[in-house]
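Thanks for the sequence, V.! I ran Sulfatase right away. Repeating your input here for the record:
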Amino acid sequence: MRLMTRSLILLALILVAGPGLHLRAAKKSKPLNFVFILVDDLGYMDVGCNNPDTFYETPHINRLAKSGMRFTNGYAANPVCSPTRYSIMTGKYPTRVDATNFFSGKRAGKFLPAPLNDRMPLDEVTIAEALKEHAYSTFFAGKWHLGPSEEFWPEKQGFDINKGGWSRGGPYGGKRYFSPYGNPRLSDGPDGEHLPDRLATETAEFIDAHREQPFFAYLAFYSVHTPLMGPNALVKKYKEKAERLGLEGKVEFADEEQVFPTDEKRKVRILQKHAVYAAMVESMDRAVGKVLQQLEASGVADNTVVMLTADNGGLSTSEGSPTSNLPLRGGKGWLYEGGIREVFLIRWPGGGQPGSVCDEPVITTDFYPTILDLAGLPLKPEQHLDGVSLKPFLQGEEPLKREALFWHYPHYSNQGGIPGGAIRMDDWKLIERFEDGQAHLYNLKTDVGEKQDLAAAEPERVKQMRRRLHQWYTETDAKFLQAKPGGPEPWRPEK
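Predicted structure:
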């Protein structure tokens, strides 16, 4: 009798709740959607959520950070673009397939660079392919730069739709950042249409069209990569801002070390005031805002994970040197923090704590397993073998700390970066130069600018960290600098 009474009460509650209870239950069980946003060449200190004093204006990215988790020690797997893009797509260090420089980058210096594989192998199970296995619709927009010909472009790597992804590393056709684009995977818009806005529009349209089914939208901006050009009205705005802030006439550059070329001094930007670059950053941020707004308008914001990061640090030592990464040293093309520490944001509605901050070191290989884990899908450790799920961090838990993070860049970068490897263990970071094997040690907790080399004062720590780095070289079959014909032999790590 008591059991029957409880059953009648439960039935009455369900009837009173009506269809709303059913809809809430259905919504709760609906698979999560994912929007992944990758910004090209965006510096860690370019956005307001990381740097309240930035010259640039990024209100939409700032709001994204406040609604999710901001990682203060988020890293790209490489100081230039293609390798990091590979790491996101595969969950692997790019060293494993010799994809260690931007694809086609083979500059020589004192020595020849290491062999370079300039395509993402087709047998990789990309994150898009892993999601397609579970009925996700997949979409790509923007910069791909992961293969020289169309058999290696997004459509062959798990994406149902591709808007603008092909071999090129920048918008170099047509009017570049303005239509006509001269892009075989993106139709031209009205004359003068702005590329970041167009890519955001394409992404927004995909989101709305697929709001009733699980989707994965990957928006990889060409911005803020060179060529440096922005809307005239925004450029004017930032020129006036620089004048208003009294930045005109202030020192903009300082000296940086240089090994290539040997006949000139390398300069690094130390002041943010570049009006064109600022216009590019704001245009990109507005495009991010358009996508976030579409999630709300389509009614899927509460069921969509949003991730945002960059492929390498801000461009500070070449090609116009448009931004400063201070207090981080160096920039794109360098193994210093300015070249690899990134904007790293994840918003997980209903799971993470809005406005939270995580200081644990994480890296771009981690996105792949994190997406699968948040989606409740089986992990693929044989594929994303260098990444770990960040779900415990997002839940406020303390997962087991991994031993180390690694970098391997056996190339002479266009930006002056020195061929080398690096390892981070806790607060310590060691950089090893590949020309001569010289090692430098920094404590990032007390010296984030990597100004004080502690190698001589910490010989045992150097020995320990080099040993682990060299083991990793062996594990990943890392390649190194090569001698020029008739030239001296470059340094090699001990085996």
